[in-house]
Write a structure and sequence with these properties.
Aminoglycoside 3'-phosphotransferase, Chain: A, domain 2, 8 helices, Phosphorylase Kinase, domain 1, 272 residues, disordered N terminus, 6-stranded antiparallel β-sheet
């Protein structure tokens, strides 16, 4: 995708915005975002590019649908604009409120301990608890998706493992999607119903290369040491292991494999 806001770009003409900071690229260059200035002040301008056959459904509408999630430290979608480039690409630009915090990390995975205040942890716990009880028709991780994910990763040993409790989840809660001073939660493309404990499991699995930080997450999210949390961790680990084979976060492969062996033993042998 070409840089958002370049000379003559449709989204720039539509919104009347001026890019005012360095752009940041999303996963596999699928998206790009940057701060921008307009008549109503400073905002965040985000562009996403997708093949037409994938430019629909929950992920495509996630940030817009997230406007129904109230009372959380998250951006609000102010405007959006969609267009196509021939028959080969669907493009979408979104204007969102610009949150005041600083990024916890420039990468989804933790490379070192991430220093945040005790209040930050409490605020994150409160936000995820409130999100979990939020009513929505959106499905982020279905039973079929969960079962297929863990069976593809772990084979017949995972055949008897099924989700028993569901809640509303962000579903992509990694360190690059979190702000500090104050807390902010970004990128709501994937949110919806999913296995209980998914968000804590996601943050935990992205932190396994930094054991002290991983232990800190476990202390703040007791769900990780329950059967619900074990199932969520198994699904998240399967997803990250699949991505590691594609070249994403390869240094997480060994700690994820070690961790999943422990989780599988607990789930299949009913260990505490």
């Amino acid at each position: 995708m070409r840089a958002v806001g370049g000379t003559g770009r449709p989204e720039r003409r539509h919104f009347g915005l001026t890019i005012s900071g360095e752009p940041l690229f999303g996963w596999r260059l699928r998206s790009i975002g940057a701060p921008a200035d307009g008549n109503d002040g400073r905002v965040w301008l985000r562009g996403a590019s997708e093949q037409p056959e994938w430019a629909h459904g929950n992920v495509w509408t996630g940030n817009a649908d997230a406007n129904t999630v109230l009372g959380l430290p998250k951006p609000r979608l102010l405007d959006r604009y969609e267009w196509t480039e021939g028959s080969w690409r669907s493009q979408r630009a979104e204007v969102l409120t610009l949150l005041p915090g600083a990024p916890c990390s420039s990468t989804p995975d933790a490379r070192a301990d991430i220093a945040v205040s005790p209040t930050w942890w409490t605020d994150l716990q409160t936000a995820l608890t409130q999100l979990a009880s939020t009513s929505t028709d959106r499905i982020s991780i279905s039973s079929e998706k969960f079962n297929r994910g863990i069976r593809d990763a772990f084979g017949d040993a995972a055949a008897g493992i099924h989700v028993e409790r569901w809640e509303t989840v962000h579903a992509d809660l990694h360190w690059a999607n979190l702000l500090h001073s104050p807390l902010g939660i970004l990128d709501w493309e994937m949110w919806g119903r999913g296995p209980a404990g998914t968000d804590a499991a996601t943050l935990y699995c992205y932190s396994l290369a930094v054991p002290d930080l991983a232990r800190k997450i476990r202390r703040h999210f007791p769900v990780l040491d329950t059967p619900d949390g074990h199932r969520a961790q198994l699904y998240v680990a399967a997803r990250l292991l699949r991505r590691a084979k594609m070249g994403d976060h390869p240094h997480l492969s060994v700690p994820l494999q070690h961790h999943t062996r422990q989780i599988m033993a607990k789930l299949t042998n009913n260990q505490p």
